[in-house]
Amino acid sequence: MAITILEATKLNTFKNFKLISGFDGLNNLIEKVGILDWEFFSNMKGQFIKGEFVLSSLLFAKDNSEYILEAVKNLIEDRSCGLAVKNIYYNELPSEVIEYANSKSFPIFIFDNSAYFEDIITEVMENIKTADNYDLLEGKIDILIRQNLNKTSVKEIALEINSSFKEQFFILYCKRKTHSENTNIIFLIEKLRRNKRFDLHSSVLKYRNGILLIYTGEKISNKQSTLNALLDNANIEKDEYYIGISDIHYDLGELDDAINESLYSEKTGEISNNSLNEFNDIGIYMILLPYIDEIWIRKFYDRVILPIKNHDDKYNTQLFETTVKYVENEGRIIETAESLFLHKNTVRYRIGKIKELLNMENYEGSFYEQLSIAIKLYKIINN
């Protein structure tokens, strides 16, 4: 379908491109690449389409720089996404062109003879085609985990993803802790596909802002060893990613469940700031994450969280901060006081006030249990 201009700047043919205007338009989508030269300029309107990235030597303007502004205005009117100028006739563009392009967030680049139009077009279009394939596979994953399909349908879609999948499998979902561009994700996926541990019975896909790795085999005898080998051979540093790992499954018709297990495990890692998370170890998040959008979950959340937050807003107190630390320290007063740099009696007073707000002064065990669940919900919703 498309790649962004920013993603295109990471391509080899763009390495000597210099951005001279339109920085705010770098997220414009490139759907096609076209060439603007003399024969188009005389009847330019309507020659280009929305999302077209235009290459030009500005031959038509070699004797009259005023034509450049006219051309840029027409490109913007046609909703082209950007322009790259080969510096045959111009090493820089008139200031009024730069100013106008900036005002319209229209990126313009200057590049030299190190790149040819044909090579730029070929590389960009190949990457758009690759992005299309990743989008198609991502759509299949969405269908699997959102449609509540029966096992037969799940297996059919699984075999559409990879006809060589085996029945025994587990899944990793890896998401970089810092933001990663699509091009970087795709580069890592291609690297993983060359991994000698990764044969035709397995697949690695882009999903959301991370990597979904489906590992299948006749018999997975040592999951931990296989997992470590996959991560090491792909140079995925565990400390740089949140990694969610599903249980081992023995029926390909459970692929949807396993994908969700890996996603929930990764999300738990984001919430708890823990790099490596197996589904079997995420505890109550097994229940909370699948049902986070249910109305009764939201009612419970509001009943516990809102009275505390409303009190803080009204009286400028720090009860909610205390609540979070109290739960993070598993209800231990002294540790909570130390983490907040408060006296333990101050923490006791605040906890008492929270019980009062929730009308739970006489429900010690239930109070902490409900508070703990509510704070976990808060972290899921606000992560």
Q: Can you describe what's shown?
A:
The chain is α/β, with parallel strands linked by helices. The chain has helices at residues 5-8, 38-41, 66-77, 95-103, 117-146, 151-161, 182-193, 223-233, 255-272, 285-288, 295-315, 319-328, 333-340, 344-357, 364-382, and strands spanning 3-4, 18-21, 29-30, 32-36, 52-56, 82-86, 108-111, 168-176, 203-207, 210-217, 241-245, 276-278. Strands 2-7-6-5-4 form a five-stranded mixed β-sheet, with helices on both faces. Helix 11 (295-315) packs across helix 15 (364-382) and helix 12 (319-328) packs across helix 13 (333-340). It is globular, with a radius of gyration of 28 Å. The relative contact order is 0.08. The mean pLDDT is 91.
Shape: globular
User: H/E element string?
Assistant: EHEEEHEHEHEHHEHEEHEHEHHHHHH
Q: Give unreliable regions as ranges.
A: none
Residues in helices, as a percent range: 40-55%
Distance between the termini: 30 Å
> Biggest sheet: strands side by side, in what order?
2-7-6-5-4
What kind of sheet is the major sheet? 5 strands, mixed
Query: What value does the average pLDDT take?
Result: 91
Please report the total strand number as a whole number: 12
Number of helix segments? 15
Describe this protein with a few key phrases.
383 residues; alpha/beta; five-stranded mixed sheet; 15 helices; 49% helix; globular
